[in-house]
Write a structure and sequence with these properties.
The structure is a single chain. The chain is mainly alpha-helical. The chain has four helices and no strands.
């Protein structure tokens, strides 16, 4: 025996002995052959659990990647939807502005039409009054109403307007303020 053998033997003995001098039965019990199948079974179970954990981690990683992709797609779809909503609001706003402008134009045109109608009605009343005055003048002067030109003033032709001649025919006086031709 060599010194190294003694040294390793003495260390084994120290490990096998308890402080009170009794030998430890646990180390010798583990070195028996009955524990080999149990240890192998436990090792295989641990290896199986390790493989199962690794497979679950891979699946979890795939699911996590899929969730991230779905989140990105959802965010993209939300951005598109927000853009569409914004465009729809802009379209509605411009449509309302166009409707407001059209309403203003319609009101302006209706006001102008009303003014023109009033002027036309006024001219129509003036025309009726003038016809009535001509009828009275024709009855008063005794000229037949079927005559095309009841009053002729050849001396005034080309000097004063027909309107002035008509006023004179109705009994008006010629003045120097009368419009000239």
């Amino acid at each position: 025996m060599t010194f190294d053998d003694l040294k390793s033997k003495s260390m084994k003995d120290q490990l096998d002995q308890k402080p009170n001098g009794e030998r430890d039965k646990g180390l010798r019990f583990l070195s028996s052959r009955r524990w080999y199948p149990a240890a192998m079974t436990l090792g295989i179970l641990c290896l199986g659990l390790l493989v199962t954990v690794i497979l679950l981690i891979i699946q979890l990683s795939q699911v996590s990647d899929l969730l991230k992709q779905q989140q990105a797609n959802l965010t993209h779809q939300e951005d598109i939807l927000e853009g569409q909503i914004s465009a729809q609001h802009q379209t509605e706003k411009s449509s309302q502005e166009s409707q407001w402008e059209l309403k203003e134009m319609i009101e302006t045109l209706a006001h102008k039409l009303d003014e023109k109608s009033k002027k036309l009605m006024e001219l129509h009343h003036q025309n009726l009054n003038l016809q009535e005055a001509l009828k009275k003048a024709a009855n008063y002067s005794g000229i037949h109403p079927a005559s095309n030109c009841p009053f002729q003033f050849p001396i005034l032709d080309g000097v004063v307007s027909e309107e002035t001649q008509l006023l004179m025919a109705l009994g008006g006086w010629f003045s120097f303020d009368a419009p000239l031709v």
